[in-house]
Amino acid sequence: MSVDTARRLSYQEFLDFEGEETEWYEWVDGELVVTPAAGTPHQLVAGRLGHELLRLGDEAGHGMTLPQILFRTSSSSARIPDFVFIGREKLPLPREGKDLTVPPDLVVEILSPSTAARDLREKRDEYGAAGVPSYWIVDAEVRSVTVWDFTTDPPTATEHRGRLPWVLGGLLLGEIDLDALFATEGLLR
Asked: If you placed Cys at 99, which of 38, 70, 122, 174 could pair as Cys (CB 3.0 to 4.6 Å)?
């Protein structure tokens, strides 16, 4: 199926759009942006990270982790992050609808070669402007997570290797073992 990415879409047209299952679609400045589906290394890290977010966040009663949900970042853009975490004070969410209607407390993007430039700049700026307090950029190539804190002026970025402390609203929820998160020995060649 061919996708006309030059045509501007209303938000409702974007929500109604049915594309290929092997591609991701986001709505940026009123236009459809097509991204190939993530590869095996990305999915391996995503599975492990999702488990850690659930363990430290959801199961401990701090809120809810959602993978790959549409998040409307502005009146003309909507993104699909790898994960979002919504603190319990923003719950419950509406049952109906295809998109997230509140700014999450955490947005996570796992870098892929096809999306790295957007994740590092465009999405970072959009998430900060949309009221997201914390943005994690997960880089499996260098085995690190960069944590952007948008609650400071100016926003700050801290790169973590080895262990990643997860702080939500000043509370340490726990730490994630990044060596285990990025381990691929015997799994990928």
From this structure: 70
Domain boundaries, the chain: 38-182
Question: Measuring CA to CA, which residue among 28, 22, 84 is closest to residue 58?
Answer: 84
Distances (CA, A) of 129 to 110, 122, 134: 20, 11, 12
Q: Any idea which fold 38-182 has?
A: tt1808, chain A (3.90.1570)
Question: Rounded to 5 degrees, what are φ and ψ at 188?
Answer: -130, 145
- Cα 28 to chain centroid, rounded: 15
pLDDT digits 0-9 by tens, 29-56 = 988 888 777 889 999 999 999 999 999 9
Do the bridges between strand 134-139 and strand 144-149 make them parallel or antiparallel, or are there none, so unpaired?
antiparallel
Q: What integer pLDDT is reported at residue 3 of this predicted model?
A: 45
Amino acid occupying residue 40? T
Strands of the sheet with 77-79, listed across from one edge: 31-36, 23-28, 77-79, 70-74, 99-100
The DSSP letter of residue 8 is B
Question: Based on the number of CB atoms within 10 Å of its own CB, is 27 exposed (0-12), middle (13-18) or buried (19 or more)?
Answer: buried
